[in-house]
């Protein structure tokens, strides 16, 4: 299925953040999703990565590797001294190649709209997902600097008309118009769009709030708008719908929450970290770094170099977390966390029980979600990807895809090699495999 000399192929990847297999009962009844499903191939059970959060998941989707191998092991950097750590937004955090790198090498035009971890990536038309957390940073200036300046400035009319900060559905309204504008003006061979409507509303309102059904309907409408734009490129362009693959996928699901756990409170109580009078971290033997439904525990680098000290602090941690047994379902060792694909430099990893999630503050042991003022989430993600009813999905239709193709289950890292096969690209050293049962081979 390589790219013929006289034919350009194109692939459109639409990521629906926090849309899971449990949402398929709704999506299958919506006109545009149903149309693609009837014409294409669907896997209804896709296991995400661990931790099952946005940046590690989206990096796995384009690399075919688990987080411990591609390097994006969390949304934000491990910077325990900072109240607001930097996000892992830049391509430089990724080890190895990506689907879009290989497309660029071939000479394809690539567009990315808020796809995570694409800052400073060299993507042809790039609006990266950027977070300005330093006091001197301006979000717009940083986005332009880390993306494609001329392209981003060309989207300003849509931004001025649609955007209201990062509020949804206005943000996705803007992305929809930007995608259509890009298809009609530039018609790239690879277009990746990250829609956040469902994820945002689930965090705010909960897993099954009535607004979620409305957000799913909006996403289906966005599929239809993109399909209309693609069809309009048939005349006068090098692509046609017969040479186009449409991919709709999720990155993870979410779970409802009622209580927040603060592991660093216990570490402070047991003398494993210290803070100043303003509550800022001054020193630590061990410190917790949350991934929402899971949580890394890291040792001070000097302690990690000493096996005896490592063993002593690890024992203290095990004792300390007995006080959180009501909210913790499992405690993983370094090796066990790595087997799941999580960061193999942590000393241990905590998994929250149903209804709980972690934050990094250290003033109290627990809070009701309703009492949380910073990072309040009535539903969230980050949990073990093999939990019951926690899977996501993968749908593909068009060129290279077997009509009616199905598979009983996939891992998120199977998606990149499968997409590379359709595009006629080589993607070396992946953890996943090509799911040929979904393809025309």
Secondary-structure-based class equals alpha/beta
Quick one: biggest sheet? 8 strands, mixed
Q: Indicate the low-confidence ranges by residue numbers.
A: 1-6
* Order of adjacent strands in the largest pleated sheet: 4-3-5-1-6-17-2-18
Question: What is the helical fraction, as a range of percent?
Answer: 25-40%
Task: Explain what this protein looks like in three dimensions.
This protein is α/β, with parallel strands linked by helices and 441 residues long. It contains 16 helices and 18 strands. It has helices spanning 24-27, 31-39, 54-63, 67-70, 99-106, 139-146, 149-154, 156-162, 170-185, 197-205, 210-231, 263-269, 301-304, 307-320, 334-339, 415-423; strands spanning 10-16, 41-47, 110-113, 125-127, 190-195, 244-250, 255-261, 273-275, 281-284, 286-290, 294-299, 328-333, 348-352, 355-358, 366-368, 379-380, 392-398, 410-411. The strands form four sheets. An eight-stranded mixed beta sheet has the order 4-3-5-1-6-17-2-18, sandwiched between helices. Strands 7, 14, 15 and 16 form a four-stranded mixed beta sheet that branches. The model is unreliable at 1-6 (pLDDT under 50).
